[in-house]
Amino acid sequence: MSASATNRLDAVVIGSGPNGLSAAVTLARAGLSVRVYERSATVGGGLRTEELTLPGFLHDVCSAVHPLALASGFFRRFGLERRVPFIVPTASYGNPLEGGHVAMAYRDLERTADGLGVDGPAWRALFGPLVREVDAVAQFTGSQLLQVPRHPLVAARFALSALAQGGPWWDLPFRTEAPGALLAGTFAHTTVPLPSLAGAAAGLTLATYAHARGWPIPVGGSRSIAQAMIDDLRAHGGEIVADVPVESLAELPDSRVVLFDTHVKDAARLGEDRLSPGYLRRISGFRDGNGVFKADFALSGPVPWTDPELYETATVHLGGSRQEVARAEQAVAAGRQSDPPYVLLSQPSLFDPSRAPAGKHVLWTYTHVPRGSTEDRTEAIIRRIEQFAPGFRDLIIGTATKNAVQMEQQDPNYRGGDISAGAPDLIQLVARPVFSSEPWRMPGRGLYLASSSAAPGPGVHGLSGYYAARAALRHEFGFTRMPDLAPAADQLFAPPSTAADPLYPPEFPEQ
């Protein structure tokens, strides 16, 4: 591949994860010529679904459940819920507890509060105001934090809630262990020690979406989300070149802008000749978080939960009490394996039969491990599931695993197995990757960072790519209005939602 072999492009995007695709879609919708380069043979990055275990068993390679799919400003502009069929379980997530008890977070806030008994009023007081202002919460949490909040009262309430849940005083509002376990399970979606402000902020966001819109799973797997963006990109003249790693910008065709859906250190390496020494020095201090060990299972039947209430959700947090979850995450932060581990589990085939042969199921799990770990945690995960689902082991007919090092080999953005592309602690959520009011714009001519290493950070939301593309359109091409991203009629799988449906209001805050 050489520059002379192709004509000049308006934009090149390196990497085809959700942020690379969102950037490419936005630029192509603006009428620019766009080409995406992907090192893997399969496009999508973390949005891939493959037969990892046995033929006919479709496993999500990275992301599985998508709380941000119905909340992200980019996806809502893109009309994702009208392009891809989603299934939203009645319960967003559940936590089994010792003694046969289970704590459930239903999409219905009132049903959740009722199930928490004496702690119901405290749960309602915590989430009621956030759920009512979910669009403002999405705008605030899905934006660069170095700005004056567009909704200051909502931002202040959210910040106070995060502060109340981000320290050792986090159990003060509750009298039983169930609500704390529910919250700790969502807080532990991050790779930061608990309790912490960053973990509380991320977890409260996810828990708010759990009641406001639910935690949806895309029919056919996460690849359905990627395919919707690929189809739109190609429909507007964009190109994708797969199975081509980019080792130097000199290999690329001439273009006015380059957007990196890569780890920021890889972007800095590729763009080193164009970047200032000061910026490179600051990027050298960007820290990676801890890793994950991922295990996928093909099952001859559904997970045999002791409590059948867990069949109402696709997502289960196996961590026990809030104190157990915190101990597990603190052990990993200290460089040790946790025992017993916190396990995040998803069983999408309970709701989407296309994922497995008739009567069979797929199970997606991961647990946190120290960065760069090569330890096999399969048995620890199985034991943890068996604790709440005796007989699970007997249902396993296929297994596929990746340790933290193998996660990086699969996707270089996951350095040391860190699927967040940089530790999502408080400092690196504010300065992601540097302190700047426009962190996507790199100080090199035509270079933009469009990955999870840039604000707003990890998650399948497409916002980092969207913001990077928006900055490029303004600064490099002189756009003052952003392109319309709404789907055309032939891109809809079902009639658009109406204003009468409170889940999908036609207007929502600018992000």
How does the SSE layout of this entry go?
Layout (H helix, E strand, L loop, with lengths): L8 E6 L3 H12 L4 E4 L11 E2 L8 E2 L12 H6 L1 H4 L2 E2 L3 E6 L5 E5 L2 H7 L4 H13 L1 H8 L10 H14 L11 H11 L9 H16 L4 E2 L4 H13 L3 E3 L13 E6 L3 H7 L6 H8 L6 E9 L15 E4 L3 H12 L9 E4 L14 E9 L8 H11 L7 E7 L1 H7 L15 H5 L16 E3 L13 H15 L34
Parallel strand pairs: 1-2, 1-10, 2-9, 10-16
Antiparallel strand pairs: 3-4, 5-8, 6-7, 11-14, 11-15, 12-13, 13-14
Description:
The chain is α/β, with parallel strands linked by helices and 511 residues long. Helices cover 33% and strands 14% of the residues. The protein has 17 helices and 16 strands. The strands form five sheets. It has a five-stranded parallel β-sheet with strand order 9-2-1-10-16, with helices on one face. Helix 1 links the parallel strand 1 (9-14) and strand 2 (34-37).
Q: Please state the CA-atom Rg, rounded to the nearest Å.
A: 22 Å
Q: What share of the residues does DSSP label as strand, in percent?
A: 5-15%
Say how many strands there are. 16
By helix and strand content, what is the structural category? Answer: alpha/beta
What is the overall shape?
A: globular
Distance between the termini: 37 Å
Mean pLDDT: 94
Sheet having the most strands: 5 strands, parallel
Helix content class: 25-40%
How many DSSP helices? 17
Query: Which strand order do you get reading across the main beta sheet?
Result: 9-2-1-10-16
Q: Provide the low-confidence segments as ranges.
A: 1-6, 495-511
